[in-house]
Amino acid sequence: xxxRLRDPLDRALGSLPRDVAPQRDLWSQIxxxxxxxxxxLQDSAGPNNVAEFPSNEPARRSGFQSRWLQLxxxxxxxxxxxxxxxxxxxxxVDQKVLQAQQATVQQMQPVLNAMPxxxxxxxxxxxxxxxxxADLSAEFERxxxxxxPVTRARLERDLADxxxxxxxxxxxxxxHPNDPLLQQLLLSTYQSELALLGSLNNVSTTVVGAxx
Amino acid sequence: MRCVRYVAPLLGxxxxxxxxxxxxxxxxxxxxxxxxGQVDIVNxxxxxxxxxxxxxxxxxSVDLNPSQRLEFINDDRHTLVRVASPGRKxxxxxxxxxxxxxxxxxxxxxxxxxxEIKGVRGSQRLQSVSGTIETTVWxxxxxxxxxxxxxxxxxxxSSSEADIDTVSGSVVLRDIAGAVEVGSVSGDIQxxxxxxxxxxxxxxxxxxxxxxxxxxxxxxxxxxxNGDLKFRLQKKVDAEFxxxxxxxxxxxxxxxxxxxxxxxxxxxxxxxxxxxxxxxVDIKTMNGGVEICDD
Lengths: 212, 295
Description:
By secondary structure, chain A is mainly α. Chain A has helices at 2-15, 27-36, 40-44, 56-114, 127-144, 149-175, 180-206.
């Protein structure tokens, strides 16, 4: 389809002349104009083809001043560009730090919202959660103390295991803060700890009259 | 030598007589009840045996200490059987045998008393701190909570819902089907069941040894920190698998080999569809290994 459409265009292009002669000869006029114009730079050029002004003294002074000006301008440019770079980099670093902080907060948000706990990590703990957990722990300690020694030892060992596991996951999460698997497991372990603290309370309170 | 031959039978006879005498001392009471009513049983320490029978009455046999008393009350569809020990003597042991209509729903609460339930077809709610729990189930729901006691559940292949939660006790489930939720901190979990519809398992340090088939739209979720998880799936498996471990190994008999998922950590993961899909299996561990195979 394109080929067919292009064929008439190709034919039209092919019919155009390949060379177009100027209506008049321009080169003779150009040559005459060049010959008539003054050539100061070409005349004052030194042996090293460096352009010089007709009067040497003012030119030397002017060159001297110009070099200082060039040097000052260069220095100004260097200082200015360095300052501008520093400002840009500083802003970029600040922004990156801010972004990283926001990202960390966002990453921790599910954990913090659901279970703002830590067993030695750096997470910020919710005050209400801390209190609830402390209350549960205190009640657990009170009740576990009244259990037979063997049962008490098992429970305390299990709670220690659970807290050790949570510490382990929290520490690993500290090394890999973006890992969703670790976040999920940490949350689950926190929940297990609360469940364990609560389970003794729940079970024993259902036994009417049990002095636990 | 000839004397020794007679020692064992004599000892057996002696023990039988002792047991009969002991049972004869047991207090025994019964009440007519609704055959599908609710029976709540409370005993702090000692033992609780619950037996389902085909009578519309609850019969209680108990050997009480002088300081203990038995509360045995029936109110409409609700029956309470409780060994009460006033004051600080609640730790005294009492052996309690309760016969209930087999269609009853039962709730048993103990602290250190062991529980054994047989022949009860209604729902069961069993709780203990350190006592072991053994029960048989049919099609009704089961809820077991224990801290350090072991749990054993024997089903009859009927579909039901079982929710088992223990801290350091081991869990053994056999011949059940349907929906199962099992949790433990350090206790090992062993499951031999028929068709699974919904399964949720979480353990911190315990191991899981699981054998079941998967319903067409089954959902199975398992999570462990340090425990190893081993699954044997029976019959034809049509499921979507998502298995991930941070630091463990994955041994997968079905689909592709697991791959490393993290640049600076040894984590491995594998995701694949086996057969037509339909069911979904989601397994996550931190350090525990995962093994999943057909049976």
